[in-house]
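U., I forgot to send this yesterday:
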Amino acid sequence: MQQASIPVVLAGTNAVILAPTAGGKTEAAFLPALELLHRERKPGVRLLYVSPLIALLNNQEARVERLAGLLGMHAFKWHGGVNASARQAFRDEPAEVLLTTPESLEAMFIHGQPVRTLFAHLRLTIIDEVHSFSDNDRGAQLISLIERLAQVSSEDIQRIGLSATVANPAEIGRWMRGSSRRPGQVVRAGGGAPKRQAVVIGPGQPEVMTDLRRRTQAGKTLAFTESRADAEMLADQLHRTAKLDFIGTYHSAISRDARQHAEDAMSGNSYPRACLTCTSAMELGVDIGDLDDVLQWGAPGSVSSLLQRWGRSGRRAGWPQHTTLYPQSDRELLTVAAQLSLAQDGWVESVRPRRRAYHILLQQMLSEVLSARGHTPVTLWKALSPSPAFSQIPEAEYRRLLAHLLTNDILAQAGGQLALGDRGEAVFGRRHLSDLIATFESPSSYTLVNRADRFEVGQIELNFVEELRTELEAGQRPVLLLGARAWQVQALQDRSAVVLVQPDTSGRPPKWAGGLPRQMERALAWRHRELLLGHPHPDGLDAAARQLLEEMQSQHTWLAGSLLPVQWRGNTLTLHTYAGTRINTTLQAALKPFGAVQSDAYVVTLRGNEPTSLMGALDLLYGNWSASEDQQAILQRLRVPRLSKYQAHLPADLARQVTLDALADWSGMLEVVKTLPPRSTVLPLQ
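Result:
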């Protein structure tokens, strides 16, 4: 890895460096970067390292300090937990290398740190786990901050991104490059893809927990789950039945001290047999040393997530990366098989960097007005427009947003200069700066909580919460299937991001037959269909899993053919698209005028309002989709969640566009509609 990356970094090239977890990416970036700084000494921070997690900062601190020390330089870690005296010492005598997070970097701007002095000669920035930034709000914030630093620095800041799992590194490189004039390159680890082994234990077998417990006896293991509740459940089971030296949990709700203790227990030599039950909080590159196995309870959220977790193992020379997966239902087995199949084909989800992040533009406008006094409308746009996150926002829309903020007293203008207005001061002023620093206040999921005992039973992604809200407002009590148990939704508590549920006794069918829905890309949803139609099974299925998958195939022969099946039974029309969440969500919006519509990654189901409703829906599906006004009218039907706290302060159409960009796919929907069977073949079934 170092042999490939060192010449590229030394040449001053922007680079995305790809290598497996623990594949030497840190040294591959830092060694040549520090050499560049050693050749040309200048005052202030010369190298900025940005991490998605404070835990990862803490994990890298000693390593980076050691590497910098070899050349007589120093590294300093800056985040909210660093005490005031250490910060003051850094301001008085800045280290050459600064390690931080996007939020802490934003705070340096807003809290009046001497940014212009500290970063006057910033030469390089290294973004760790760059894939975890590039398609979300934190990434839009981070790349905007880097562009603001580029206007402060006398250097053309060289950008280096590190990642283990990404499908489109060149696109990430273009996003990361921003206003830099340096050429860009993707650097890959030699030796091809790592050797991987997987075992899938079919669901419903009485010895599943016995198998999991047996595998934890082999040495050090991580057991990933999709919810904190399952992580705690597995830890409790292991505490009661497994004879291990250490059993711990690792998720967002545990304390910083508990996290550190868990990391130390797994990375040290004191506990030869140790298991940590964890959520995606352990997915990124916190170094916990050699692992004997990575266990997965339930289906991972994506192929990327599977590969990140899988790559935690296999660090010893000659050892393959190994994972054992325990799907909990037939549907989860199909998803695990689809994920494994695509992973073994070399496919992983692409990331889609934000290009018109209106809400982050608003946040950065407020941040820049607070941190750099004297801005006019012209200078503010000049300061912010170079960010790739705003590359598809024309100046006219910036002007309209600015006028909206001025009209609503978020910003004020006096003598041509911009400042916070009275309302802006009340919402984002000095007493509320923490609200402005973090971009991700709105949760990505809601927690399902049993109303009776307040026990957490799972999580549901934010965009599906809106469907529950619609039914609750209509006086309905939707039923959700989680594991093998049905739960009836009682209420939503938005301030705490909680869905209150109780055990269901109604016997009504669940809202989503396959369990709780999840965001899914089109290729992954389509591989579900291909497997049901006889696509070769992935390697690693045990006999029970293989038999169950074959039974599912025998039940879905009607899916065969090049056109997508459309079923019409009574007052219900079902489109078996297997097109993924974003396309089916868009199709759901199109069919909304004709009745009650629901969708997941695989099907869209319409229950007609009246006998003629389904005919109207078919007229739409087989009609002319070319008119742009039709697109706008259809997308207006989407009841979309608020994905960011800043959307509340945007003009209504821009606020809506933020969510549509994230959750809808118009062009993909048009492609799917073209694959419907001839209308003459869509007839009511008796």
